[in-house]
């Protein structure tokens, strides 16, 4: 995708999203030995960067498509993002969610005006339910990460970050479905000054790491990670971008994720979800390689259940 | 105290403190029906506004006094603030803490280079231990809230807020020992445009509310509040300022405090301590009076124990 597409996307979604603040921490800089710039997408509308891609995808629909609505299947942040983006734009959103999803997540989607459609908790059932809505309602299916408009939208967080700090040496993101890191890599390529992009990924769901080595999209057999936003699988739209523009991926353990998350909560006083901590955990893990650099970190989201936190002492 | 004193104080402490960000939330604005501007002192160095007053108090000492160090008694944020401010300025800090204080709080003070002196957990023992250090070491005693230099320092958060948003109708703060609200009231008086100051106070420790009614400093017989920073007592330095410049105090229940805290955690994705939630709880409680106003809120701090949170669902 071209530079102009990223710029056009940003201008298109700007009125509907927050230009989120960038926070710094003297203490975390000291711990890492580098200068860190945290792009706080946990402060984004609905609490995650997914709002960007969802908004862009809906804005690219024709008037006729908008009248018929959009559909996705997700039990995570994209469900809420598509519901809120659709509501902001006066479009109907059908969100297919497994019946086993926590009620609090269903309520969040309903709170943003989304139409929750429950299905059995299998991938086949989710896809079938979405397909049925596409056919019966004429709604347009929007994939949470493997969609060029979604990828472009997710990249605008890095675009804003580089507008404020054009001299970054590296930008870190977590890697799940691949939409965020692909969009970030495009933005860093077009708007950075030799700015590398590095991903953080849990060992327990390291499909992207293995895919970059094998040169083809690999799957996760199990995904026993606390970083619930990163269980999803790379796709054929974002993988080629990742291959071309991402420097490398650093894998981290579950303990490293929780410990990085706790460090950010305690020292920066911001609420980040486990998936967001994965990027920072990757920096901590290989900090010797990043001494004295200027490093951007996309804090992807802050949606956690406060009555079920992983911290102990 | 005069306008010039506030300005001089700000210029003095500026190099040692953060000009903390001001956050807004579309959703909380909708809930309240007003425009809210949250001054995030939870992002201040050591996690609370107390850093401001502690820094100012030390900077006002003579060279000879600095060489002999400072002493306070506190088991809360002022203990950490005085330790860190002293460390930044190359001054020794003796912090008298009850032996019953949580080890994590003692460790925080030690981490900032403070010299923890343990004593029996009574007010007499604390005062006696501090007195002993004053006599034996020649250290200068600095009170956490009832000290003009501390009051001036605490007011600089409101000064920064009004620099960014000069049109605020009201600024809310929590009320504990009275240093923050007194300093805020001075800053609002000198730098606001008819800007009122209103305090939030727990029913369970409502000495300031009762003092304003009776016209003399009242005490709390018990202080069974989750807002542990607000258990302390008004003093003779800050009370006259509060009488003169504070509009009124709104009292809130423990349930209202926890619920306001949870709302900010969940919606703003920032970590605030229960004492900070008291100011926002006061706004929520009487929101009918504040429709369409521009309201500043001093988020006083973010030091909480993550393994002991009050949230349930």
Let me know the average pLDDT of chain A.
Answer: 96
Q: Tell me what portion of residues of chain A adopts beta-strand conformation.
A: 15-25%
Work out the radius of gyration of chain A: 18 Å
Count interface residues per chain for the largest interface: A-B, 25 and 25 residues
Q: What overall geometry of chain A do the principal axes of the alpha carbons give?
A: globular
Q: Please identify, by name, the CATH architecture of the largest domain in chain A.
A: 3-Layer(aba) Sandwich
Helicity of chain A, in percent? Answer: 40-55%
Description:
Two copies of one chain form a homodimer. Chain A has two domains: 3-46 and 148-299, Rossmann fold (3-Layer(aba) Sandwich), CATH 3.40.50.1100; 51-141, Rossmann fold (3-Layer(aba) Sandwich), CATH 3.40.50. Chain A is built from 13 helices and ten strands. Chain A has helices spanning 3-13, 26-32, 50-59, 63-68, 77-88, 103-111, 123-137, 148-164, 179-191, 207-214, 238-245, 254-268, 274-285, and strands spanning 22-23, 35-40, 70-73, 93-98, 115-119, 140-141, 170-174, 196-202, 248-252, 294-299. In chain A, the strands form two sheets. In chain A, strands 1-2-10-7-8-9 form a six-stranded mixed beta sheet, with helices on both faces. Chain A has a four-stranded parallel beta sheet with strand order 5-4-3-6, with helices on both faces. In chain A, strand 7, helix 9 (179-191) and strand 8 form a beta-alpha-beta unit. Chain A is globular. The mean pLDDT of chain A is 96. The A-B interface holds A 21, 23, 26, 40, 42-43, 45, 47, 104, 262, 265-266, 268-272, 302, 305-307, 309, 311-313 and B 21, 23, 26, 40, 42-43, 45, 47, 104, 262, 265-266, 268-272, 302, 305-307, 309, 311-313.
């Amino acid at each position: 995708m071209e530079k102009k597409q990223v710029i056009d996307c940003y201008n298109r979604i700007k009125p509907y999203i927050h230009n989120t603040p960038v926070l710094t921490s003297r203490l975390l800089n000291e711990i890492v030995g580098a200068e860190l710039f945290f792009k706080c997408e946990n402060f984004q509308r609905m609490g995650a960067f997914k709002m960007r891609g969802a908004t862009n995808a809906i804005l690219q629909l024709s008037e006729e498509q908008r009248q018929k609505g959009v559909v996705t299947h997700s039990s995570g942040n994209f469900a809420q993002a598509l519901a809120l983006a659709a509501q902001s734009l006066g479009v109907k959103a059908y969100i297919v969610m497994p019946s086993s999803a926590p009620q609090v997540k269903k309520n969040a989607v309903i709170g943003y005006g989304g139409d929750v459609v429950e299905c059995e908790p299998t991938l086949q059932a989710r896809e079938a339910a979405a397909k049925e809505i596409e056919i019966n309602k004429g709604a347009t299916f929007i994939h949470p990460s493997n969609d060029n408009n979604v990828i472009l939208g997710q990249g605008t967080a890095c675009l804003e970050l580089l507008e404020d700090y054009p001299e970054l040496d590296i930008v870190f993101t977590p890697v799940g479905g691949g939409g965020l890191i692909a969009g970030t890599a495009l933005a860093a390529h077009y708007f950075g000054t030799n700015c590398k992009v590095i991903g953080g990924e849990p060992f327990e769901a390291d499909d992207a790491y293995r895919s970059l080595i094998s040169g083809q999209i690999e799957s996760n057999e199990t995904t026993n990670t606390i970083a619930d936003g990163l269980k999803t699988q790379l796709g054929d739209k974002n993988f080629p971008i990742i291959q071309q523009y991402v420097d490398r991926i650093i894998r981290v353990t579950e303990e490293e994720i929780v410990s990085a998350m706790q460090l950010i909560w305690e020292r920066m006083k911001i609420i980040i979800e486990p998936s967001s901590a994965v990027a920072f955990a990757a920096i901590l893990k290989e900090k010797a390689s990043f001494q004295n650099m200027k490093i951007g970190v996309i804090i992807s989201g802050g949606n956690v259940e406060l009555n079920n936190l992983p911290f102990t002492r």
